[in-house]
Amino acid sequence: MEKLSKAAIFAIVALVIVLIVIFKSSVVIEAGQAGVLFKPFGEGVEKDATYGEGFHIIAPWNDMIIFPVRQLSKSDKMRVLSVNGLEVTVDATVWYQPEYDRLPYLYQEKGINYEDNILEPAISAAARSVVGRYTPEQLYSSKRDVIQSEILEEARKELESQYVQVNRVLVKDVTLPPKIKEAIERKLKQEQEALEYEFRLTKASKEAERQKIDAEGKAVANQILSASLTDKILTEKGIEATLKLAESPNSKVIVVGGGENGGLPIILGNQ
């Protein structure tokens, strides 16, 4: 009985050890994640392999460091200076992800908190570099799309050898000092009013020119018509009109006038 008890205790201890080994040796990497294997009794970080999603068995003394590798986003409000030294606040969001195949190098050189160590400083440096090229008026009005593209380009340059891929940068807002913003809005309003006034003047000038051309055309037409209306033509037209009127049932008497050319007929009669 005593031997059975010792055997049972030994079996239980062995089972516990096996369970611990299995527990320590099994790793499940979830969807959108990847792992880097660290061997404390070997070469340290295993640089030749990035472990993908699924179930993995490793030696119980090794560690699997798991990173999210799907696209991530980070938002920040950065205070930067414009080209003339005025402080502006840029509210931006960056979409990024670690480079899958180089994940072991990212862990070894930058650590698990690589966002704080390299990503944020790179985005901040890119924003300072880009915003420093523009005036507050440009930042406030029409340069936001250009700023986004340039910050993205600068950030990629900063991170191209840092094992992090930047996919997109969105500038949600550019906040200027209140007095500068008010001055810019007044200036933009005045420019808009000036453009509207210039448009009205141009429209009025074009209308006056159109009326002038129309009047000149009518004058020329009248001159041509007057030159073509001889006495003979007028008499002929008058006779044609008289004949048409004579055909009317209300016409009673036709009097033919005298004169050198005979004059035009006159019709007398009741309605």
From TrEMBL:
User: Can you say where in the cell this protein is located?
Assistant: Membrane
Membrane topology type: Single-pass membrane protein
What residue stretches are annotated with the Band domain? 24-188
Q: What is its main location?
A: membrane
| Record GO cellular component, one term | membrane
Q: What keywords is this UniProt entry annotated with? A: Membrane, Transmembrane, Transmembrane helix
For the keyword Transmembrane helix, the answer is yes
Which Pfam family is one of those matched by this entry?
Band_7
Q: Which domain of life is it from?
A: Bacteria
Q: Where are the transmembrane segments?
A: 7-29
The reply on keyword Secreted is no
Name of this chain's protein? Peptidase
Protein source organism: Nonlabens spongiae
